[in-house]
Amino acid sequence: MSYIVMKYDDLSLKYMMAFTCVADFSLTRGMPVSMGLIGQSLALGDTLYKNKLKEWIKKGIEIWNHGYFHTIDEFSSASYEQQCQSISDTQKLMKTELGQTAVTFGSPHNNSTETTIDALETVAPEIKNYLFAVDGMAAANARQLLVRCDMEVATGKIDFDFFIKNYNQLRNFPYMVIQGHPNFWSKRDFDQNEKIMEFLHDEGNIFVTPCQLPVFTVDDIVHKEAQENVGALLAFAGMHEKIAIYGAGEIGREMYRFLKANHVSPSLFVISDGQEKYEKEICDLPVIFLSEFQKLRRDYGIIVAMMPKFHNEITEMLLKAGVEYFCFNDKERYMALVHYLRISI
């Protein structure tokens, strides 16, 4: 049995009909869900819209802070001041128009950096749950909900078989977050969403909102293979004088925090040449391009911390560069490691 957090992104007046379908199914079946509100929609929305949101909240649907503008750069390349403004403006509107501020945050496009975490802690310390936002430095007094079970094979395209494959990998975990974008869905996707929720219910899982989710620790997972994977990772780190992490995104920061908790201190984040560098530093470590890394001494070991679809390209480059690296060839084994890291944060 797992706790299920349904995470529906991009709630706004424009897409109210789509979200109403989701809400009606949730409330009829008694399966609580959560919805990410675009703050600007409260400034532009009418009374009917706001009253419907208040009704949903009263009935148990959690409305969380999804930023103000819903742009790609809002929580990636935007300045600290701009990110503070986006977060606080949405919180203030929710308090004024809905009667309560959010206790959960999830960024648009799941973009976030350490700047985002600093902004959240500064202007919204009342937010206690971060959805897919990694606090690599453990700077905030909030928990990170990172164990995700994807049902959309692409944004707005639900695939039941794809979901089942991901679900089977997470059966041993105490919770999982499932993300959806109703504003992109066709009728078939709405049907698939309901089919997945019914399946999860029949499996004996329990639906909760982020604020209802119990607190877990890594000790809640008994998984021999996961322990073996972690052992291999830490053994690799122990064999090298210096460690660099390849990937400065979500998984890279998850890896950093896990390594630090296990007495391994990485020195660098490495990204591919040509990749956009949103910040010069992540977790107080420099972010450099692979071509810059190749000029350094060869006493580094690199830990690959990116989604498996990039692994072949990256490992080929590292092999050519003569760099020792850690990365499981088996994609399922690699993702099992990532899931374990996420629950341990």
Structure commentary:
With 345 residues, this protein is an alpha/beta fold. Helix 1 links the parallel strand 1 (3-11) and strand 2 (34-37). The strands form 4 sheets. The protein has a 6-stranded mixed beta sheet, with helices on both faces. Strands 1, 2, 3, 9 and 10 form a 5-stranded parallel beta sheet that branches. The chain is globular and about 65 Å long. It has helices at 16-29, 40-44, 47-58, 80-98, 114-123, 160-169, 187-202, 224-238, 250-261, 290-293, 311-321, 331-344; strands at residues 3-11, 34-37, 62-65, 104-105, 129-131, 143-145, 152-154, 157-158, 175-180, 206-208, 242-246, 268-271, 281-282, 285-289, 300-304, 324-326. Helix 9 packs across helix 12 (331-344). The chain folds into 2 domains: 3-216, Glycoside hydrolase/deacetylase (TIM Barrel, Alpha-Beta Barrel), CATH 3.20.20.370; 222-344, Rossmann fold (3-Layer(aba) Sandwich). It has 12 helices and 16 strands. The relative contact order is 0.12.
What characteristics describe this protein?
alpha/beta; TIM Barrel; Rossmann fold; 2 domains; 6-stranded mixed sheet
Helix content: 40-55%
In terms of DSSP E residues, the strand content is: 15-25%
Largest sheet: 6 strands, mixed
Dominant shape: globular
The CATH architecture name of the largest domain reads Alpha-Beta Barrel
Could you state the CATH homologous superfamily of the largest domain? Glycoside hydrolase/deacetylase
Oligomer: single chain
Q: Could you state the order of secondary-structure elements as H and E?
A: EHEHHEHEHEEEEHEHEHEHEEEHEHEH
Say how many strands there are.
16
Domain tally:
2
Using the CA coordinates, give the radius of gyration. 20 Å
> For the residues shown, what is the average pLDDT?
94
**CATH topology name of the largest domain:** TIM Barrel
Structural class: alpha/beta
CATH domain class name of the largest domain: Alpha Beta
Low-confidence runs (pLDDT<50, min 5 residues)?
none
End-to-end distance? 21 Å
The tally of helices reads: 12
Strand order of the largest sheet: 13-14-12-11-15-16
